[in-house]
TrEMBL record:
GO molecular function: acetate-CoA ligase activity; AMP binding; ATP binding; metal ion binding
EC number assigned by the record: 6.2.1.1
Entry binding sites for Mg(2+): V542, H544, V547
Domain AMP-binding enzyme C-terminal: 536-614
Family: Belongs to the ATP-dependent AMP-binding enzyme family.
Superkingdom, taxonomy of origin: Bacteria
Catalysed reactions, as listed in the record: acetate + ATP + CoA = acetyl-CoA + AMP + diphosphate
Biological function: Catalyzes the conversion of acetate into acetyl-CoA (AcCoA), an essential intermediate at the junction of anabolic and catabolic pathways. AcsA undergoes a two-step reaction. In the first half reaction, AcsA combines acetate with ATP to form acetyl-adenylate (AcAMP) intermediate. In the second half reaction, it can then transfer the acetyl group from AcAMP to the sulfhydryl group of CoA, forming the product AcCoA.
Reported cofactor(s): Mg(2+)
The name this protein goes by in its record: Acetyl-coenzyme A synthetase
PTM remark: Acetylated. Deacetylation by the SIR2-homolog deacetylase activates the enzyme.
Domain AMP-dependent synthetase/ligase residue range list: 83-474
Gene Ontology BP annotations: acetyl-CoA biosynthetic process from acetate
Gene name as annotated: acsA_3
Length: 653
């Protein structure tokens, strides 16, 4: 499908959707011409305890980066996601929970939790937190499977003004420990075990291991999920079901400032330790809710399913906060796309009559590879809108998604955004934006993308442009700081290109003004939609005593989008072997988690370095991509001969 061929929304959809082309254009224009007025109006979509008078107070100026929205307003995010819906839709399902095992008896199969029930669960949970000494501003780490308690825990924190920091349950004990320490958490909420794809991860064991150094300082609240045996620390572990017996289901929401932190979410950067991305309460909620409504054309009564895990930002904004702020029915899925078989997604869509389905290109590619039969067995007529997120989607996968899953009837919204942005920045709106396979199309309201010439930092004014993607002005969902390190926030996002927010992504703008993300320009790789710093994998590798040096790059992978390619130089006296290779793979899994395991590991007697000792990743990337015809100038290398060896011994997949 050539770039210039548009897929137009049907006339009926354009008529019925929240926005048609004209509405989008008028609203977009208003949003960038007078952001104050636009967001003053749309800030009203949340219920404020004390209404805001100030709307926007933001600066990207070097040395003075400061982002505040609705700053004198007060609200409670949990009350916005629950209490305000009780009168009108107390008996409507808020959360549909679909367990890992579709036939599980002990899990009770799918659960439907109404807004009224959600209210009771969250109030009780909040009272349990209070009893454990948690209050406003305290950090709580959540390390849970995809069970309703994960949403209760998030909303309970929000209700009492505690700041949650979710750690994806696929992360190792070491990665968990680092995040607990980094935000100085008082409490960890976990489960005995996490069933996924028919296998169980021993979450509580990981917590115990993570807390070796603070063994009796950090409390732990445990949800009984599997009923397996766990090592219980009598003095500081608590069972949720026991603690809940002791509390009432009434808990008044705390009045929070718009700029009080709602959550911290650790995400990979190009250097050093993961960054604690901080999102605050008012602007984040306005933006998550508004994007959820417009991007998915969500309408009252519909069933919305985002397949992400709440451990990633997508789960925060589009499983919990956005949908619940809109009074939606949101589906939470504990399992994986291929268990019990590759038809699971479609089985769940049929069973719960899902209207909007939102997933990642890596899942689409994996399922596409299993054949159309798995899709065609199911009645998918309830589907209305399809979405993708996490990485660029190749047109082949886009077309399969459109044709086989959507039956050619469902607009696809390819949503580009980041942990840092809180919600969608580039995305089609179903009734308004003609789509092109592989393009995230046009900016959301209030978002001003610019394409800069990478070297000079000049904005390219022509419609057709290729360069780095920056954003010229703030939007309400923007992250506010890096937890405990505002300097790092400024340095990472506002120093390479002055007066802009630098996204770290490269992009192309075509003759129609459509944006095409070309991938990260920094040393961040995107494996199955999971963001990882090459530096993290490298430091895990060099922590092994056999490894002298390691360099990690991404390479195109047919299913994962990008795979991890590691070059490893061994310590003198250590010899390469298959055993050692396996040992290093297991080592990385343990240090970071299964998602960081290298797909290819090449023994490198030497790495290509400049005379100043900087590893030339450009060359390593080319070799990993098997594109060594295009290595470019290697004459500045301290020892150009290492390159020949690397090419010769390249790992073939
Ligand atoms: C939401 C999320 C952010 C990075 C981002 C970009 C890539 C996300 C994309 C996309 C092309 C899309 N990315 N959505 N690339 N098209 N629709 O994924 O957040 O985990 O922080 O990753 O993911 O490279 O910079 P996060």
């Amino acid at each position: 499908m050539p770039d210039d061929q548009f897929r137009h929304p049907s006339e009926a959809l354009a008529r019925e959707a929240h926005a048609d082309r004209e509405t989008y254009e008028a609203m977009y224009k208003a949003s960038v011409e007078d952001p104050e007025a636009f967001w003053r109006e749309h800030g009203e979509r949340v219920d404020w305890i004390k209404p805001f008078t100030q709307v926007k107070n933001t600066s990207f100026a070097p040395g003075n980066v400061s982002i505040k929205w609705f700053e004198d307003g007060t609200l409670n995010v949990a009350a916005n996601c629950i209490d305000r819906h009780l009168k009108e839709r107390g008996d409507q399902t808020a959360i549909i929970w679909e367990p890992d095992d579709p036939d599980s008896v002990e899990g009770g199969g799918a659960q439907h939790i109404t807004y009224q029930q959600l209210h009771a669960h969250v109030c009780k949970f909040a009272n349990v937190l209070k009893n454990l000494g948690i209050g406003r501003g305290d950090r709580v780490v959540i390390y849970l499977p995809m069970i309703p308690e994960a949403a209760y825990a998030m909303l309970a924190c929000a209700r009492i003004g505690a700041i949650h920091s979710i750690v994806f349950a696929g992360f190792s004990a070491d990665a968990l420990g680092a995040r607990i320490n980094a935000c100085d958490a008082k409490l960890v909420i976990t489960a005995d075990g996490a069933p996924r794809g028919g296998r169980v991860t021993n979450l509580k064991d990981n917590v115990n291991q993570a807390l070796t150094h603070d063994y009796d300082v950090v409390k732990c609240l445990v949800v009984k999920r599997t009923g397996q045996q766990i090592a219980f620390r009598e003095e500081c572990d608590y069972w949720l079901h026991e603690e809940q017996e002791k509390v009432s289901d009434v808990c008044e929401p705390e009045e929070m400032g718009a700029e009080d932190p709602l959550f911290i979410l650790y995400t990979s950067g190009s250097t050093g330790q993961p960054k604690g991305v901080v999102h605050t309460s008012g602007g984040y909620l306005v933006f998550a809710a508004m994007t959820h409504q417009y991007t998915f054309d969500y309408r009252a009564g519909e069933v919305f399913w985002c397949t992400a895990d709440v451990g990633w930002v997508t789960g925060h904004s589009y499983i919990v906060y956005g949908p619940l702020a809109n009074g939606a029915t949101t589906l939470m899925f504990e399992g994986v796309p291929t268990y019990p078989d590759a038809g699971r997604f479609w089985d769940v869509c049929e069973k719960h009559k899902v209207n909007q389905f939102y997933t990642a290109p890596t899942a689409i590619r994996a399922l596409m590879g299993k054949g159309d039969e798995y899709v065609q067995k199911h009645d998918l007529s309830s589907l209305r809108i399809l979405g993708t997120v996490g990485e660029p989607i190749n047109p082949e996968a886009w077309n399969w998604y459109d044709r086989v899953v959507g039956g050619g009837r469902c607009p696809i919204v390819d949503t580009w955004w980041q942990t840092e942005t809180g919600g969608h920045l580039l995305t089609p709106l179903p009734g308004a934006t003609p789509t092109k396979p592989g393009s995230a199309t046009l900016p959301f309201f209030g978002v001003q993308p610019v394409v800069l010439e990478p070297q000079s930092g000049e904005a390219i004014e022509t419609t057709e442009a290729e360069g780095v993607l920056c954003i010229a002005d703030s939007w309400p969902g923007q992250m506010r700081t890096v937890w405990g390190d505002h300097e790092r926030f400024e340095k990472t996002y506002f120093s390479d290109y002055k007066n802009y927010y630098f996204t770290g992504d490269g992009c192309r703008r075509d003759a129609d003004g459509y944006y095409w993300i070309t991938g990260r320009v920094d040393d961040v790789i995107n494996v199955s939609g999971h963001r990882m710093g090459t530096a993290e994998v490298e430091s895990a590798l060099v922590a092994h005593d056999a490894v002298a040096e390691a360099a990690v790059v991404g390479y195109p992978h047919p299913v994962k989008g990008q795979g991890i390619y590691a070059y490893v130089t061994l310590m003198g006296g250590r010899e390469p072997s298959d055993e050692l290779r396996k040992e290093l793979e297991t080592w990385v899994r343990k240090e970071i988690g299964p998602i960081a395991k290298p797909d290819c590991l090449q023994w490198a007697p030497g790495l290509p370095k400049t005379r100043s000792g900087k590893i030339m990743r450009r060359i390593l990337r080319k070799i990993a991509e098997n594109d060594h015809g295009a290595l470019g100038d290697i004459s500045t290398l301290a020892d150009p001969s290492v390159v020949d060896d690397l090419i010769e011994n390249r790992v073939n997949r």
